Amino acid sequence: MRNLVRGINRARYWLVAVGAVSLLAGCAQLKYYMQAAQGQYALWSDARPIDDWLGDPSTDPQLKARLEKALLIRKFAVKELGLPDNASYKNYAALSRPFVLWNVVATPELSLRPIQWCFPIAGCVSYRGYYSKDDASAYADELRKEGNDVQVGGVPAYSTLGWFSDPLLSTFINYSDAELARMVFHELAHQVVYVPGDSQFNEGFATAVEEAGVARWLELYGTDPMREAYVRYNARRQDFLALLVRHREMLAELYAGKTSTRHKRAEKARIFAHLKSDYAKLKDSWGGYAGYDRWFAEPLTNAQLSAVATYHDYLPAFRALLKQERTFVRFYAAVQKIATLDLVQRRQQLDQLGRPVMLNAESDKEPTAAVEGAPDAAMQHKKPLEASF
User: Fold this and answer.
1) DSSP result, 337-382
2) What is the pTM of this model?
3) β-strands 91-93, 168-169: how paired?
4) Is the sign of the CA dihedral 349, 112, 157, 164 positive or negative?
5) Which parts of the chain have pLDDT scores under 70?
6) Taking each helix axis from N to C terminus, what angle separates 343-353 and 328-339, rounded to the nearest 10 degrees?
7) Spatial separation of the C-alpha atoms in residues 358 and 316, rounded to whole Å
8) What strand order describes the sheet that includes 128-130?
9) Can you spell out the DSSP letters for 5-42?
């Protein structure tokens, strides 16, 4: 009961705080701030302890099996990976939509630098989240009218960085065992280390934890078919990332050049057409595997390629640091130490540990623009494993 009261009070505080900030920011932002607060509150309110679901005779047996697996993964995260032992992922919420929210990501027409929105808790982040797809699409249309490249992507999970007890969700509970473990490990990692305003640092760290955690999970609990399937998945993922990095480099070189806007637009279209063609060849080499087709379902934009950088450019550095420190506890301490440095020093430390995936004038610049926001950006939004990043 004490935890329940604490949770209710915290949720009420969240609503009041967001409402106050939104009023100070002006009426134009009020709708956005309130949908964020109401969406988070509804999510928290819909969640029930997993034990309640397991003890309910009306719960589908398949769901019970997935929840039991999630509890095993949660215990493994604490015991083997040193991740927080708190109330996160011990509740479950069944949603009536395919994603918990939708992210809007945008860049200028001829740049790979994401537009950012800044918030008091999370700092500046390169997305803006909506609990309604229609609202996300409407805001995306506004950004397109301003001449930006825009992507709207569904998000199955996010982290509130410890502000709330994050629940398991119907949007990802039916992932395979390895993917479910990956999601839980990644989100819990954000509660260990988080640097406001440095998404590449945060996501690179959490992705390194997820990778190593899933590898250890499969060693202990995986079957031979599961391990073989994950090896194939990783091989496809690396192939796809390499494809995207090559074309990002082409675009970065183009945008940094001194040619006319007309020429850059024409070359941009050619590079994206080349990307589609190369992907078709890659699919053939995979035997027709179509797990990334959704990535190409809408017209390609700079926004999609900028999102890849957020998760993967500094991953080599965190992999190297984990290998160097050998244990997760020592790894977390080393990452926390780097997190205390300023942005330039952090990037220097990471550069020394492992060469970033992409180094060029375009990617080294600071993100474009910044818009003042409210505390809803304490959420680190996640995208599906395959088909998006």
Assistant:
1) HHHTS-HHHHHHHHHHHS--S--SHHHHSPPEEEEE--GGGGSEEE
2) 0.83
3) parallel
4) positive
5) 1-29, 120-122, 356-389
6) 140
7) 11
8) 128-130, 101-107, 149-155
9) HHHHHHHHHHHHHHHHHHHHH-HHHHHHHHHHHHHHHH
- The type of residue at 80 is E
- CB-side exposure of 185: number of CA atoms within 13 Å? 28
Report the pLDDT value the prediction gives residue 17, as an integer from 0 to 100: 45
Phi, psi of 128 (to 5 degrees): -135, 120
Contact 379, 39 (CB under 8 A): no
CB 120 within 8 A of CB 114: no
Question: For residue 167, what are its two tokens?
Answer: 């629940």
Q: What is the pLDDT of residues 49-67, one digit of tens each?
A: 999 999 999 999 999 999 9
Q: Comparing C-alpha atoms, which of 242, 309, 249 is closest to residue 279?
A: 242
The one-letter amino acid at 304: Q
CB 158 within 8 A of CB 381: yes
Domain boundaries, the chain: 2-313+357-382
Asked if residues 219 and 262 have their Cβ atoms less than 8 Å apart, the reply is no
Residue closest to 166 by CA, chosen among 91, 100, 101, 102? 91
Amino acid, res. 48: R
- Distance (Å, whole) CA 132 – CA 351: 39
CA-nearest of 10, 172, 165 to 84 is 165
Between CA 83 and CA 330 the distance in angstroms is 12
Q: What is the pLDDT of residues 14-36, one digit of tens each?
A: 444 444 444 444 454 678 888 88
CA distance 86 to 71: 13
CB hemisphere CA count around 237 (13 angstroms)? 16
Helices 199-221/61-81 angle, 10° precision = 110
Of 58, 292, 77, 291, whose CA–CA distance to 168 is shortest? 77
Amino acid identity for residue 283 in this structure:
K
Reported residue count of the chain is 389
